[in-house]
Amino acid sequence: MKFMFSRRIQNTPKSFIREILKVTENPDVISFAGGLPNPSLIDTEGIGKAASDIIKSDGRSALQYSTTEGYEPLRQYIADRYAKRYNLDVSADEILITNGSQQCLDLLGKVFINNGDSVLMEKPGYLGAIQSFSLYEPEFHSVSLQDDGPDTGELSSVLSEELPAFFYGIPNSQNPTGITYSDEKRKEVAEILNEAEVPFIEDDAYGELRFDGKAIKPVKYYMPEAGIMTGSFSKIFSPGMRLGWVCATPEVLDKVIIAKQASDLHSNYLSQRILYQYLEENNIDTHIEKIRAEYKKRADLMVKTIRSELPPEITCTQPEGGMFVWLRFPDNMSSMKIFEKASEKNVVILPGMPFYVDGKGDKTARLNFTNSDEEEIKYGIGVVADVIKELYY
Amino acid sequence: MKFMFSRRIQNTPKSFIREILKVTENPDVISFAGGLPNPSLIDTEGIGKAASDIIKSDGRSALQYSTTEGYEPLRQYIADRYAKRYNLDVSADEILITNGSQQCLDLLGKVFINNGDSVLMEKPGYLGAIQSFSLYEPEFHSVSLQDDGPDTGELSSVLSEELPAFFYGIPNSQNPTGITYSDEKRKEVAEILNEAEVPFIEDDAYGELRFDGKAIKPVKYYMPEAGIMTGSFSKIFSPGMRLGWVCATPEVLDKVIIAKQASDLHSNYLSQRILYQYLEENNIDTHIEKIRAEYKKRADLMVKTIRSELPPEITCTQPEGGMFVWLRFPDNMSSMKIFEKASEKNVVILPGMPFYVDGKGDKTARLNFTNSDEEEIKYGIGVVADVIKELYY
């Protein structure tokens, strides 16, 4: 039997990260490669109680089929939180619950991308998004990220030549770089995109994880109609329950609903009900506060250790939130080589290449700080420093 | 802002069923239109206990990110069950856990369909599959269903003109007709497809619901390499937890894994763990036996009532399992008209049209018997009979 696979799937290689994560299943390995929330900060007790309570009080409904859009009170909760945190005027009708925010990318790919269309990414950009969109066979273009957001000159220049289906970006604690767009950049990006009539897909997976707790107005605030936000409960509640959402105007959400229904009818309803029950029974802000404090401590330690242990030619970002630090190597170094050598010593970093749609990025690497404890951070960065010395000094 | 939506989404109308289901949210309505398992047959107590137990004993892991393929012991359980029930030689490596079996269709669409490719369906065919595959812009062809399965002459004749990406069918208690392929037809279909090198996507959502409990060997048994099966826990465990699976050889599953990862990383892991815990703590076969007995009673009552109340020109299938009875009307009647009139009297049937890729089917309708009690079945069919008399006699 000779199978005739689709072009899209033949052209999508197995994810490099996925292959790396297999290595890190070995408990002797210190992994800075993944993007896992710290399991000690998952409130298993609170979630267990919420699960028990909802199955007892409304099990037959919670375990039955449900609506494509998702549980209405949960959608209302999300809309209210947008109003409270971001001063965004959003109604429950503008929210659809997804299987984690990764599914938002698949649904939005379905809704916006014809094969051959341009899609605009940050450079470097989130590789999960590159992978999702790839299945709809776009041509990728990218705009360089500076320390305060996209290079807006480059953005304008790309838009003068291309009309992309959308621009996809992560203004808060970007994945992979950890940088956060300045308020000024957000306004500029919105103005440029509005002018060009290009929607902005604003991935806000890390907005709740800003260490100082202060919310910055999203890009959508400056382009309410053409702004589409995606959000996630993975980082503040439980990743394994795969709960995220799309927020868009009814015109766009109508199309997302069709895509969602064709994709899997609706998201896990029991999990939606457990989550809402949890939000009723607990103060999620107290819990988020704990996560922020813990992650800030680890981020600061990682940056400090990098600066003291690694040669000064290697620079790193100072994250204001999120889960990642970004390393930049000088021209004579290769992150793939450093990755290989460090892996032999059971410390895994993530080379930057898969985050670049143009195949570049070997002078960069992403380090996750949320899933390692302080000893592991110190020891692991030490190993990376040793490897670099061995290779280049 | 003028949004530029993709062709695929512009060409997919809102689901007719979805619109109907909105009407049926009114508790005064008797609905034969949906496909909901009976909520009284969901073991809320057992699931509640399993949820508590797993969150207590292994919550941090159950609530964390997990592998794309799904929880290994659950995949092994499914493989073992294939061996036990169907005498199929399948390993855990050939199983991937999905969000209900609807997601299998989306993933297989991604893996197999280039826009413009032929896709072969049963006529009438499952509308959820039509909707899923539509997003990959195929050309649909269909093969008539006879009382014992597809018209194999027609199948051969279509295959002499078209090389479809696959043939999709439901050999056990088909949706919408309720018919079951005979053993002979299964062999013939497998031979024809093997010869033409066309994969068979065998949707087995209802195999466990055969009223007599006797498993019939699947088509995949006769074409192990090119047979791809999809399965579901929605009908025997909980639909709201959205748990299904794809079973295919490693060559195909490798591609499905890539599609799954790009779509949503992995299925709800907590739900997978709750399900497996439930399977450890309970005898699912006893539970399935209860569902079968209850559904058989309702199916028999519905068929008996149809035969006694409706004019003899209207015929219906006699289901051996599953959830649906299929009505065939004579040429002078219209299922849309009957649907409209009956809806005014708060009884909803599902006109057959959306199950036909060629726009025909107005002489047919699908009736669900699992989600109405005996009184509702008798009363509802009585209303349909009254409406038909009003309209046509």
TrEMBL record, chains A, B:
GO terms for molecular function: pyridoxal phosphate binding; transaminase activity. Residues 48-381 form the Aminotransferase class I/classII large domain. Pfam families: Aminotran_1_2. Keywords: Aminotransferase, Pyridoxal phosphate, Transferase. One of its GO terms (biological process) is alpha-amino acid metabolic process. InterPro entries: Aminotransferase_I/II_large, Class-I_PLP-dep_aminotransf, PyrdxlP-dep_Trfase, PyrdxlP-dep_Trfase_major, PyrdxlP-dep_Trfase_small. Its cofactor is pyridoxal 5'-phosphate. Homodimer. Belongs to the class-I pyridoxal-phosphate-dependent aminotransferase family. This is Putative transcriptional regulator, GntR family.
